[in-house]
Amino acid sequence: MSTYVFGDIQGCFDELQSLLHQTAYDETKDQLWFVGDLVNRGKKNLETVNFIMSQGNAITVLGNHDLHFLAVATGCHKPTSKDTFSDLLESSNLPEIIDWLRYRPLIHHDQHSGFTLVHAGIPPIWDLGSSLLRAREVESILQGDHYRSFLQEMYGDDPDHWNDRLTGMARLRMITNYFTRMRFCTTNGKLALTYKALERPDGFSPWFELPRPAGQELHILFGHWAALEGVTQNESAIALDTGCVWGRYLTAFRLEDGQYFTTPSVTSQQ
After folding, report:
1. What's the CATH code of the domain at 121?
2. Can you tell me the distance from the alpha carbon of 128 to that of 133, in angstroms, rounded to the nearest whole number?
3. Of 2, 127, 7, nearest to 60 (Cα)?
4. The domain containing residue 76 runs over which residues?
5. Domain count across the chain
6. Dist. CA 213–CA 199, nearest whole Å
């Protein structure tokens, strides 16, 4: 059995299928993990989601684009001019897709391999136990009766740092932004969410360069930051978003031996 971890698909279904063929994926014995952002910006969102839903043991964490899609699909937010998931919105299976996504976690930790899967990252102020507990706060809302209220109010950059006394939507938004939008951070957990490239703002560092709580080294698989092009210079933080939807390539990582697999974007070959 092999476990293949894929970077942000974002509707790049053809490249996903090409990479599965390259890895010789066997759905009867292998497992697929996805770092989130299954949809948006690409063209084949419905095919992507239908395929992943059909893989019974696939593990997917939520990304910011997945959450945005949920907000639009449930009438909690208007689509933007850049959104490309009309194929999902027009699907007869939309209610099933919404419910499936609502029940995806923000973090997945595998005790056997020691790897932790998350979309954007884990802030340096939290250990694994704290991260799982705080992710569960958001997950319980998404999976409950009041998820629409959360989807309406999750947008925004405020607050920009963690405080144990945060409550309500401020607390939930902060947790969500850490796990699905974080790039640059400070040692005390302050975020600079408007910076998306590689030039760091003063006083901030990429989250994976900052020291973690004493005695805990996490092996984190993440996506979200295409500008990194898969390079972190940190063996404990494996970046898998290599910008397929932007014309670069799609990447997968095999847990068992650390081998990478890549396939060029169809866009880059046109």
Report:
1. 3.60.21.10
2. 9
3. 7
4. 3-269
5. 1
6. 26
